[in-house]
Each structure stands twice: as C-alpha cells, then as structure tokens.
Amino acid sequence: MRNIVRTNIVLGVRSYVYPIYLLVALAYGLMLLAFPKRYLPTMVPLFLLFEPGLVGFMFVGTEIFAEKKDGAIGALAVTPIDWRSYILAKTLLLSLLSVIGAVLIMAMGTRSLNGLPYVVVGTFLVSIVYTLLGIAVSAKYRDLDDYFIPILGVMVVSLLPFAHYHGYLTGEVWKVLYAVPSYPVIYFFKAPFEEIAAGTLVYSAAALLAWSGIAYQLAKIRFYRYAVEGLR
C-alpha cells in the first residue's frame, strides 16, 4: 500500500494533475475575494462543493485515462499488486488533496479558519464518495471526450441539492434530492456560517459513510471488469 501511494504521488506530480488540482483550489479562493462578505455564507459552500466533489470526479478520471494509456492499470492483471489497494490509495490521496484545497479556499476566501473542522470532515467524506464514483464511472471509458457527458450529468445532479437547500426547488418531488451525496455535505459546509444541529451533522456523516460503501462496491466491480480485465 505504501509503495502504491508513493507511486501515485510521483505520477500525479509528473502528470501535473495534483499541482493543477491545488491551483484550482487557489483560484477558487482568489475568486471569493471578489465577493462582499455578506455573500460568503452562500458562495463558500458552493465553491467547496465544486473543489472536492465535482473537480475530484473529473480529475480521477483524467488520472485513470493516463494510466490506461501508459499500461499501468493493465499491469495490475499480471502483477501481485492488489488492485483494491490501488483504488484505496488513489481515493485516500485525492481525499487528502481535497482537504488541502478546502483549507486554501477557506483561508483565502474568508480570511478566517473559523469552523474549519466542519469543512475538513465534510470535505474528506464527500471527496471519498466522488472519487470512488469517478473511478467507477471512468473505468469504462478510454478518454476525456467519452467521459465528458458523465461529468456534466454528475455536475447538474450534484448542484440541484444546493438549489433545494436555498429554497429554489420547493415541490414535494424535490425531496428525492436528499438521496444525492452532495446534500448531506452542505450542512458541514454551512456550519461555519450558521448554527447546524449536532444531530443533523451526525446523520449527514452517516449518509456520506453509507454512500462511501456503495461507491466503493461500484468502483471495485466496474474497475476490475473494465480497467483490469479490459472488458467493454
């Protein structure tokens, strides 16, 4: 596991995926400086959702495409390396990278670290979910062109809970959005700016952990079938 993590770090830096990921977070923090302070309780959670969730979903696919072309993933089928450890290592690295990005956004965008523990926990949990979903979905594709439609679909669905939370989608039918993994993390990202009940945060963490289990099973099945075995 240690060797896989070390290799992923080297590949992520050489391919500029990790540096670009952090530059995106830095850009988000700089963009928040342009907003008046009264808008920060709305805009900071939105930018935090983009950084660990949606950007992470896209970047993990980019990593997998590059490693498919290099033959690194295909080698998993004929080496003693456990491909499940490969999935967990990549998820852990991107989740920790997301936490660093979230800290950058908070520090630069709000000029404060108040409520940072909520943001760190929420970022780590939601990043695990979206990274695993990204692995599960991207495993079937060969390049970013094919992956573009799933990225748009995930982006749209993941932003709908944010609109519902702020009262823009009010019909009973929209309660189905509570099942989307981006909904529970909103409470963690809003906690630095408003009072969120402890029970709500506990339920939100439980929901994200449940989603992590589901996403891991999907990633494990689809990654082995489409990436390791090379089925289509």
TrEMBL record:
UniProt cross-references to InterPro entries, sorted A to Z: FLQE3_permease
Pfam family, one: FLQE3_permease
Assigned keywords, A-Z: Membrane, Transmembrane, Transmembrane helix
Transmembrane region(s): 16-35, 47-66, 87-109, 115-135, 147-165, 196-216
Signal peptide segment: none
Native organism: Thermococcus radiotolerans
Keyword Kinase: no
Domain of life: Archaea
Protein's name in the database: ABC transporter permease
